[in-house]
Specification:
Elements lengths: L1 H28 L25 H14 L2 H5 L4 H26 L7 H21 L6 E3 L6 E3 L2 H22 L5 H20 L4 H21 L8 H18 L6 H4 L1 H19 L11 H6 L10 H23 L4
Antiparallel strand pairs: 1-2
Helix pairs in contact: 1-2, 1-8, 2-4, 2-8, 2-9, 4-5, 4-8, 4-9, 5-6, 6-9, 6-11, 7-8, 7-9, 7-13
Length: 335
């Protein structure tokens, strides 16, 4: 099992680092450029025109690993990683459509908020329906700390699952605002699933291969995305990541672990919700210098010290790593 997991990691890492050398110049040639929001930090204007849709790099790496390293397991009838991959690809496709519209219009607006939400809602409902039909998902909620399992009415579980999936996808998307931030914060999340696979055994190997591929792919992506970024993942990458994280949590039957595991994504989302809500209620006042939270730190919020992008990367990745360790300690002895 160790060799298979290592092969998944190395294959994904080597593919992304190699593919990026040809793919990024192609994006530049095709003028697939990111348009920076005008209401963001003024120094981000220098990023305008950076190639986007770089998420395709680690998405293809995940596909490659699932169909090669994961193939022996498929011959034995284990397709869990394929279901997670397909679900993630659906969200990646929504992001790709959004990125394509942005590039075509040469501005930072693609799909409408309502349109994007509707597509995500449909994708989440289809995932839940299919996973239940195949027997991979049940109307039972596992409580990580107590270890108890609570049966739930089907309708209530479905509402909860949709909320978690759509919320996770958008939380990762919101966090993708600084070089390397979404990738760096996501790596410990997928590493958690790798560790859980080793702790729980070969039954979860196929899912572990997907997680290993994501760790390797994202590390390879950081070669090009770390500050100063040569390419952005775009909504193609961030929506794929969010879908993958949510799908993995349900595949391992512990969606509530995301509360601890994804603390930084939750903080980012809450800061955006609080900012918008308070702005409307107070008729123009703000809680944060700028939302989401990473922009607040960039702008010198609270302390007056303006955080640099590399410092934000270290902060978010560090906290995410700590949350990974705590999450593992909470659930490693479940089985």
């Amino acid at each position: 099992m160790t060799m298979q997991m290592l092969c998944a990691f190395l294959l994904a890492f080597l593919f992304v680092t190699g593919f990026g050398k040809a793919y990024i110049p192609w994006l530049e040639k095709e003028k697939a450029r990111q348009q920076i929001k005008k209401d963001g930090p003024v120094w981000h204007a220098a990023k305008n025109g950076t190639p986007t849709m770089g998420g395709v790099m680690f998405i293809l790496a995940a596909v490659l690993v699932c169909l090669t390293v994961g193939f022996p397991g498929m011959l034995q009838g284990h397709f869990e990683h394929i279901f997670v991959l397909l679900f993630s690809l659906v969200f990646g496709a929504i992001g790709l459509l959004d990125d394509w519209k942005k590039i075509r219009r040469e501005q930072n607006t693609g799909l409408t908020t309502r349109g994007k939400f509707l597509l995500q809602l449909i994708a989440a409902l289809l995932f839940i329906f299919i996973m239940k039909k195949l027997g991979f998902l049940h109307d039972v909620l596992y409580l990580p700390i107590s270890g108890k399992e609570i049966p739930m009415p089907a309708w209530l579980f479905d509402i909860f699952a949709v909320f978690v999936i759509v919320g996770t996808v958008n939380a990762v998307n919101i966090s993708d605002g600084v070089d390397g931030l979404a990738a760096g914060t996501s790596i410990p999340v997928f590493l958690f699933f790798v560790l859980i696979t080793f702790a729980w055994g070969k039954e979860y190997l196929q899912l572990g291969l997907f997680a290993s591929a994501m760790v390797g792919g994202l590390m390879g992506f950081l070669v090009y995305n770390f500050n100063p970024a040569k390419v952005f993942m775009g909504d193609t990458g961030s929506l794929f990541l969010g879908g993958a994280i949510a799908a993995m949590a349900f595949a391992y039957d512990m969606p509530l672990i995301l509360i601890l595991l994804c603390v930084m994504f939750i903080i980012e989302t809450l800061s955006d919700i609080i900012q918008v809500g308070y702005f409307k209620l107070s008729h123009g006042k703000r809680v944060f210098r700028m939302a989401p939270f990473h922009h607040h730190l960039e702008m010198g919020g609270w302390t007056g010290r303006k955080w640099k992008e590399k410092e934000l990367f270290v902060l978010f990745t560090g906290v995410s790593t700590l949350c990974m360790v705590l999450s593992f300690l909470v659930v490693f002895d479940r089985f």
